[in-house]
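Q: Convert this sequence to structure tokens.
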Amino acid sequence: MYVLISRIRPLAPFILLFLIVGIAIALVVSAEAQSPSPAAKTEMAPTGKLRVAFPVNALTAPKNATTGELGGLTADLGRELARLLGVPYEPVEFASPGKFIEVAGSDVWDVTLLSPDPARAKVADWSAPVFELDYTYLVPPNSKLMTSAEVDRPGIRVGAVKGDAQELAVTRALKNGEVVRFEGWPATMEALRDGKVEAVAGNRVTLPTNAKEVPGSRILDDRFGKQVLVVFVPKGRAAALAYVEEFVKQSIASGLVQKIIDRSGRPGLNVAEQ
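A:
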């Protein structure tokens, strides 16, 4: 053992230098992977600012009721993208995901975070998944419904917020039940409270907050689907799409996405499987 150590000791400086160079190369490669090409920067921020769309919703783009500040997952990723691009960050508010999609074909935004859906493919392209969580149901007090399969029966009415990802997903998932659409969460929860629907479609991250509006309501243990969140860019911006694809890959690999989840303090939100 002594002989081995004595032979290695003279090489120690070279081994240390090799490790330092290796780490430096890895950092450079990582930085270059997120450094935008001129085409990508032009497509990501054609006005010189990164216009981050905030279709206000509790999951990805919440608005502080007191200060009016737009925050959440969209803000975290948007600010990081703006920093990497070297351009100012500019939040652009929309009343809801549905209202955003209605105008998303016009030049009013550059990037946002939403759930993909065929109905949204006409106005946007998107990255691989960044976050994932469960779609599930909220049922009122004394409901006998225990599983998603039991919800999908003739005569069962399921409330959903018009234009939200949950509404799009439950519309495809239900084969026998009926989807009843409402403008916004207050109207949707009022319908559950008043017995106008037997269940409400939502996700496991935000439904606990909604459930407080109907004391005694219950979130089902299983799920009717998996929700993923992706980075949207306007349709046809190929260089921008390639850039956000690499950004997502690097953000997951570096642990940034997990840090954002940890900071959000939201159980049920996970890093998407790649």
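Residues 22 and 119 are 46 Å apart (CA to CA).
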